[in-house]
Amino acid sequence: MSDYIAKQIQLTSRPAGMPSQENFSCVEVELEPPAAGQALVKNLYMSVDPYMRGRMREDGVYAQSYGLNSALWGGAVGEVIESNAEGLEAGDIVLNGAAWQDKFVADASTLDKLEPFDRDQLSLYIGTLGMPGLTAYVGLFKYGEPKEGETVFVSAASGAVGANVCQIAKLKGCRVIGSVGNDAKAQWLLGECGVDAVINYKTCGNLTDALAAAAPDGIDVYFENVGGDHLQAALAVMNPFGRIAACGMIASYNNSKPAPGPNNLMLIVGKKVRINGFIVSDHGDMREQFLVDMIGWIKEGKVKSRETVLDGLDNSVEAFLNLFSGKNFGKMVVKI
Amino acid sequence: MSDYIAKQIQLTSRPAGMPSQENFSCVEVELEPPAAGQALVKNLYMSVDPYMRGRMREDGVYAQSYGLNSALWGGAVGEVIESNAEGLEAGDIVLNGAAWQDKFVADASTLDKLEPFDRDQLSLYIGTLGMPGLTAYVGLFKYGEPKEGETVFVSAASGAVGANVCQIAKLKGCRVIGSVGNDAKAQWLLGECGVDAVINYKTCGNLTDALAAAAPDGIDVYFENVGGDHLQAALAVMNPFGRIAACGMIASYNNSKPAPGPNNLMLIVGKKVRINGFIVSDHGDMREQFLVDMIGWIKEGKVKSRETVLDGLDNSVEAFLNLFSGKNFGKMVVKI
Q1: Cα A245–Cα A251–Cα A255 angle in degrees, nearest 5
Q2: pLDDT digits over A149-174, tens only?
Q3: Structure ipTM
Q4: CB–CB contact A249 B270 (8 Å)
């Protein structure tokens, strides 16, 4: 197979509710050899993330919409195969925005050359050391502002973002409560990550009651990944001057029509709550310190990463779809 | 009538939905003469405010609950009739927390002696120069953080708080859009207060469409007094990095069961919105500067106050009830 024949996943129709394989196709394209300043990259690992669902809508409020019948994109780690650019050579490992493609040609300026701290853990650069990890770090520290001894509630707590939030909140001396959708995830958070209490939202009955029981002193910070009932429970159990870092609301991503919000929003006033929506791409200024801190914590064994790895670009759509049924355990990665 | 016979309004039962006269009674009590450090005060003006509805619930999340069959309380301006306290003498004007009573005896420490800038405008101290004015000032400047040229949307815009928000936002060089429930209020805001556009939410049809039309460049700050559809419209039309100062949500205060929230809360994330709930009593540190600024603006004619005055303590319940049907125009005051 020529080095210049690449496969890419394209969106062929916009999903109305939950996406399915029918919305995507795998297309073979022939690349041009890299022009001056460009490189040919073979992707090794690509990320699938819940936010990508937003890009599949025509009116991309969250982020720029994906076009139909052209390559999707997202975070990936690849290896340079052929370079026509200064400062890049074959074998270099590059973080790039060209997920959903096994190979691609791009300007060197769009490739972030990594000095990996461990060549055997490259996928961390799209997980704990990548966008999801930085999201956890920015959301918790900049917007959650947890103080030692406070209680932090994290939804989707074993996910790519949530698991990092839980662990770095513990490092700050907080009591941490997570919510997850199955007991294996709960056990991992309790046993491996030092989380203090975990709620299985599918089996706990009334979520507000379960959270109140798990947080007898209330919660001070809520890291919002889910929305809906989770937000309602968090507001109900929140202490005065609580902070909500609003990272995402996955419960609503596949709604074909909008669902109403929590019925207790007035508590925002009464409890003097602060909510900050944020998107990690606005916070590149925190990345350098984040990498120093996070690599340190990983090396010391203080932050653990769990990944679900599917093999092959052909499985990337399945990997993406699995995010919405909770089949991923930790960071969902596609090995290409 | 003895100076020591006082009338007070008591809550006799907790309203389930919209309160009515039946939930209240007017009771005559005999006061003790002021002990050392106390004064006897005759109230001149008392405030009725939407937040008082929250105090009528048994579980006062917003603020301490009113007890049954004892005097209600709230902001009032009175005159000292008899003093047994150093630093206070008959004729002094005092801001106090003993509304809903025509006379009362209290410790001098609970009385805030005023040096009124105009003896003929004492009621301003429970309006534009009092809690509602400070609420506007804190919410807009500390939490809304409007920049010159930005667009500010204010709900309940002709009310005691909203009318001040509108006018001080104009003083900061903002474009201001208000929403009100009748055309007379709209005309006053447009004609007297310099507001740029006003929406009558009862007649405008779809509120989001009306707001989008009034704010072709989007809104940057939303001063939230209403909740429900207003919050949904504000989120829909908000610009990235918009700020919401959440002062109250009057649309929900009389719900006998909780109503669902807006169906577009995910926009908080996508638009990177910041929401701050706040209660003015946490911000006494801003009062001194507020009074300097606001008295200056009033004297210069830059901030106008409109009041609806009902006469007599016997009409205080009606004054309060009128807040929820929008019968007040500007600040609702009871002259005692």
Answers
A1: 130
A2: 999 999 999 999 999 999 999 999 99
A3: 0.94
A4: no
